[in-house]
Amino acid sequence: MAQSALRARSTPADRAIAATLAAAILAVLTIGASLTPSPTGMGTHKQLGLPSCGWIISADTPCPTCGMTTAFAAVAHGDLSAAFAAQPMGAIGAIVAAAVFWACLHIALTGSRLGSVAFRLLTPRLLWIVGAVWAASWVYKVIASR
């Protein structure tokens, strides 16, 4: 029975979800690659026609996502040090997004059960760790922007 479970394939619905996720992630990564990372570590999102960060305008403090677009763009351009300097969580997010893209593409094309294994890793503890890293990245961004 264990060997038959190992040989099981993803359902057509699982494969369609994986393909959709791969396409969405590829779109985000492609947009990041099309942008020029801001040397200031913030503001790259303005190239997309988006307004300035409201938190900076109203509170003179970066928001929790300030620098994310710059970090994604820097990772896409292969500049990991600039990405981590812009927003550590953004750099980690871009690297994880690229890995998830390849995993989703693999699942969609081969029917691999990799997705079910990956979902078992998403425990509350891991989510708390991600939240703590994000909070630390925000504190870093606030300090670095002064």
Structure description:
- The chain has helices at 2-7, 12-34, 54-59, 68-76, 80-86, 88-110, 114-121, 124-144.
- The termini are far apart.
- The protein is 71% helix and 0% strand.
- The model has no long low-confidence stretch (mean pLDDT 91).
- By secondary structure, the chain is mainly α.
- It has one domain (11-113, 121-144).
In short:
With 146 residues, the protein is mainly alpha-helical. The chain contains eight helices and no strands.
Integer tally of domains: 1
Helix content: over 70%
pLDDT averaged over residues: 91
Choose one word for the global shape: globular
Beta-strand level of the residues, as a percent range?
A: under 5%
What's the layout of helices and strands?
Blueprint (H helix, E strand, L loop, with lengths): L1 H6 L4 H23 L19 H6 L8 H9 L3 H7 L1 H23 L3 H8 L2 H21 L2
Helix pairs in contact: 2-4, 2-6, 4-5, 4-6, 5-6
